[in-house]
Design a protein that fits this description.
mainly alpha; 14 helices; about 80% helix; globular; transmembrane helix; EamA family transporter; membrane; EmrE-like; transmembrane
Length: about 290
C-alpha cells in the first residue's frame, strides 16, 4: 500500500498549495503566482536529483515532455485564475472530473481500460457536482447545474480537469521512460520556461503591481514539489486512475480549508458534494 500513502500525501499537500495560492492572490498577479509555483517547484525538485539520480531516458520521454508541459502551462494559469475568481470550496471539488475524463483519455494514451464500475463512478461525480449548488433547486431541476456553469471559475476548472486528464497520462509515460523525480523536475522546468514569456507579456501590458515573489511563493513551490514527487512515485507503483482517485480527495480538504480559513459559505452542501464526487472517483479507480 505504499502507493496509497504517496497518493494521500499528494492530496494533502496539493490542497495546502491551493490554500496558499488563494491567500497570495489577494495581492498578487495570477501569472506571477503561476510562475512562482512552477519555478520554485522545479528548484526544490532539483535538490532531490543528487539522491534520486539521473536515469536512462526512454524514446518517448521528449514527446511526453513536450505535450505534457505545454498543456500544463495552460492548465496552471487557468487554474490560478479560477482560484482567484471563485470560492476554493466550490471549484476544488470540480477537479474530481479529471478521473471521469480519464475513462476516455487513458485507454487512448496508455492503454488502461476500466470496466463497468466506472459508470457508477461517473454517476456519483455528476450527482456530487449537482449537490454543490443544491440550494438553487427551488429555481428548477437543472438550476444547480446552471449555477455551476454560470460561475466563471467553475467553467475554467472543468477545462483544467480535462487538460489534467491528458497530462496525467503523459506523466505516466514520462515516468516510465525516466524516473519519478527526474520526470517531475524536467516537467516543471519546462512548464516554467513556457510560462515566462506569457508572464513577461502580461507584466508589460498591465500594472506591475503584485509581481514580487514572497515567502508564500516559496512555500507554494515547496508544497507542490512534495505533492508532485509523491504523485510520480505513486504512479510508478500503480494505475494512473488509482493515483488520481486518491489525489482528488484533496477536494474534501479544500472545502474545509475554504470554510474555516476564508469564511466561505455553504459548507454542508459543498462538503457533501465533494464527498460524493470522491466516492465516484474511487468507484472509477476500482473499475
Amino acid at each position: 500500500m505504499t502507493w496509497f500513502l504517496f497518493a494521500f500525501a499528494t492530496a494533502f499537500f496539493e490542497s495546502l498549495r491551493d490554500v496558499l495560492n488563494k491567500y497570495t492572490l489577494k495581492n498578487a498577479n495570477e501569472y506571477a503566482v503561476a510562475l512562482g509555483l512552477n519555478g520554485f517547484s522545479a528548484l526544490f525538485l532539483l535538490s532531490l536529483l543528487p539522491t534520486a539520480g539521473i536515469p536512462i531516458i526512454g524514446q518517448q520521454f521528449w514527446l511526453a515532455l513536450g505535450f505534457g508541459a505545454s498543456l500544463n502551462a495552460i492548465a496552471y494559469i487557468i487554474f490560478i485564475k479560477a482560484i482567484k475568481l471563485s470560492d476554493l470550496s466550490k471549484i476544488a471539488p470540480l477537479t474530481t472530473f479529471t478521473p471521469l475524463f480519464l475513462l476516455i483519455t487513458s485507454p487512448v494514451l496508455v492503454g488502461e481500460f476500466p470496466n463497468g464500475k466506472g459508470l457508477l463512478g461517473i454517476l456519483l461525480v455528476v450527482i456530487g457536482a449537482y449537490t454543490l449548488n443544491i440550494r438553487q433547486l427551488h429555481k428548477g431541476f437543472f438550476a444547480p447545474f446552471q449555477a455551476l456553469w454560470q460561475d466563471r471559475g467553475a467553467k475554467f476548472v472543468l477545462g483544467v480537469a480535462f487538460l489534467w486528464s491528458l497530462t496525467s497520462n503523459f506523466d505516466k509515460i514520462g515516468v516510465q521512460n525516466s524516473s519519478p523525480i527526474f520526470w517531475a523536475f524536467a516537467n516543471y522546468s519546462a512548464i516554467t520556461v513556457l510560462i515566462v514569456p506569457m508572464a513577461l507579456y502580461q507584466r508589460n501590458a498591465r500594472s506591475r503591481q503584485g509581481w514580487n515573489f514572497s515567502r508564500t511563493s516559496i512555500l507554494i513551490g515547496l508544497c507542490n514539489a512534495i505533492a508532485v514527487a509523491c504523485q510520480m512515485n505513486a504512479m510508478s507503483l500503480t494505475l494512473v486512475a488509482y493515483t488520481i482517485a486518491i489525489k482528488r480527495t484533496s477536494a474534501v480538504f479544500s472545502v474545509l480549508f475554504g470554510h474555516f480559513l476564508f469564511k466561505e459559505k455553504g459548507l454542508r452542501e459543498r462538503l457533501v458534494g465533494a464527498a460524493i464526487m470522491v466516492m465516484g472517483v474511487v468507484a472509477i479507480a476500482l473499475s
